[in-house]
Amino acid sequence: SFNSLNHDMTLTEFKFIWYMEYSHRMWGRVVGLAYILPAAYFWRRGWLSRPLKGCVLTLCGLVCFQGLLGWYMVKSGLEEKPDSYDIPRVSQYRLAAHLGSALVLYSASLWTGLSLLLPRHKLPETHQLLRMRQYAHGTTALIFLTALSGAFVAGLDAGLVYNSFPKMGERWIPDDLLAFSPVLRNVFENPTTVQFDHRILGIASVTAVTALYLFSRKIPLPRRTRMAVTSLLAVACMQ
């Protein structure tokens, strides 16, 4: 990397990116200890129920898996790739997997914590409520997919290809959208297609969250649930 691309980098500039990576690794290890040490203490004291023990083991396993996946991702950036134009980059597939597992770990941790802290609402299982729950799950999956597509944008530097919105350059649909063969390869390896997909998914996510909010206004919901849906809409708009 130094010989082919960053030969003019100063020692101060190198230290900056080195400490960024080092801090990320150290923070990841602190997170791991914050999971595993209290879990071992609570387990030994007998404060965990049988179902909670399963949750704790799963979360601790996810923490360890996340660390290994991070190492596996970084390793891909250290390999010589003749088709990468001498630009060292990690595999976009491994980057997406690393981000995806982090989101799963965070969501599972938050869900477990809130389940213990807040009692579950006993609501009548009406048709509207069931529909809203299904729609909320679908919206969650769409948001997750949008975040993963963002990892492909980052991994391929696809954000540098077009910097205009809503059009991409002078066109709504760029000419090189399906430049790679076979066609499916474009979805994961063509920077133009990756950016285009991320835009579509982002717009779809905001639309889905807005529709969820409007639908929730028609159903009698507890205050806590209303606050959650309203906060989701606010964060989606800010994002």
Word description of this protein:
- One of its GO terms (molecular function) is oxidoreductase activity, acting on NAD(P)H, heme protein as acceptor.
- It is a multi-pass membrane protein.
- Its main location: membrane.
- There is one protein chain.
- Helix content is 69%, strand content 0%.
- The chain is mainly α and 239 residues long.
- The two termini are 33 Å apart.
- The model has no long low-confidence stretch (mean pLDDT 90).
Radius of gyration (CA) equals 22 Å
Gross morphology is: flat
Helices and strands: which structural class? mainly alpha
Give the domain tally.
2
Strand fraction band? under 5%
List keywords for this structure.
single chain, 239 residues, mainly alpha, 2 domains, flat
Helices and strands in order:
Elements: H1 11-45, H2 50-76, H3 92-117, H4 127-155, H5 184-189, H6 191-216, H7 223-238
Give the gist of this structure:
With 239 residues, the chain is mainly α.
